[in-house]
Design a protein that fits this description.
2 copies of one chain form a homodimer.
Chain A lengths: L2 H25 L6 H8 L3 H7 L3 H25 L6 H15 L4 H10 L3 H28 L8 H25 L5 H11 L3
Helix pairs in contact in A: 1-2, 1-4, 4-5, 4-7, 5-8, 6-7, 7-8
The first copy, chain A, binds a DNA duplex through helix 3.
Chain lengths: 197, 197
DNA sequence: GTCTATACGGAGATAGAC
DNA sequence: GTCTATCTCCGTATAGAC
């Protein structure tokens, strides 16, 4: 396989994903027609179906792409230098989202779709599992430096706290996407006040 | 207006809403056709359009109905007897959801739709405002009994904590709706560990 | 690989009888 | 108010040329 061709192929797929992401964010996944993605991408229907079997597969690819970068960021941060605190981990989690996605709309749509679509549900399950792992690691590392806060050991402390950190991250994304008057700083300040330091 | 007729009308509207709720929970709002609601309700298309102008209005009515149930539960609890603690408030908020999966799924779908549909967005804004008010009240009441935890007064303490309690509630609903292996008890235990007591 | 053009099915909404 | 029947549009996905 010639690498030029392969690189071009991936570039084209990326072009399609990017156009789809913009379209989904603007109109929502269901309301977005292939014609919309055609317009947004400057390509044709044929070109799109040449790369993705159907609309659902395209959405899954977009979602997968967006989500996969969270893992890397957190893993990187928790393995270099001083372990980040739970609050800092939350900031990493939400900050990355904010950078990648203009807003979290598409993620909220993904969550919604995955309540009724088994294929998307599988994508979400897998990524959540992975985030849990990375997040758990990061928390464990931090609790290891603070034995005073982990009487039953860093493992137990991390396991206990995990759902809260995940939940606060998800809720941040949702509220930012949903509420006209959402105040990120107030939200994070509230989180900082309750998370262990 | 004869009241029998009015009561019958409301009963019929309720029958339609209930059928729509079941359908939406099973297939998702967008994937649910009017034909599905017809089947589920045992009525006809004509009957449904006699009560709701279009599919969107029906969804708004279903969502409004689901949301108002939450509001009532919290308001009732916070006005009777000892002020519930933040953790107890969270349990109240999520308790209704834990009983029935349908409500949770439809709520997640509502959040998703409201990222792209102005009419639904307005519904969400309004109800969130109301929940904020009720929740804020409840938190203020509790902090008033615990001045040791509210150095700047119960108002400030309640304001600070509010986003976290709301967020944890929303995230509970979402995780319950979409994670196969969601553990409500572990989630609430984690919340209890971080919330002030 | 990509384009243009289109087949095909399905969904929302209405008309008109009862 | 409700039913049956149907109209009309729109969206997905494909066929075939280049």
């Amino acid at each position: 396989m010639p690498r030029i061709t392969e690189a071009r192929r991936e570039a084209r797929r990326d072009q399609i994903r990017a156009a789809a992401l913009r379209s989904f964010a603007a109109k929502g996944y269901q309301r977005t027609s292939i014609a919309d993605v055609v317009t947004e991408s400057g390509l044709s229907a044929g070109a799109i179906y040449g790369h993705y079997a159907d609309k659902g597969e395209l959405f899954a690819a977009v979602a997968q792409h967006v989500l996969s970068r969270r893992d890397d960021e957190i893993a990187a941060a928790s393995h270099e230098g001083v372990p980040p605190s739970p609050y800092e981990i939350l900031v990493l989690l939400t900050g990355g989202m904010a950078r990648d996605l203009a807003d979290g709309r598409v993620l909220v749509q993904l969550w919604s779709e995955s309540t009724v679509d088994p294929a998307l549900r599988a994508v979400v399950q897998r990524v959540v599992g992975s985030v849990r792992g990375v997040l758990g690691d990061a928390l464990r590392n931090w609790f290891a430096t603070r034995p005073d806060l982990a009487p039953d050991g860093p493992d137990a402390a991390a396991q206990l706290l995990l759902p809260v950190v995940m939940g606060l991250g998800q809720a941040f994304i949702m509220q930012r996407a949903l509420l006209e008057d959402f105040d990120p700083d107030a939200y994070l300040a509230a989180a900082e006040a309750v998370l262990p330091r």
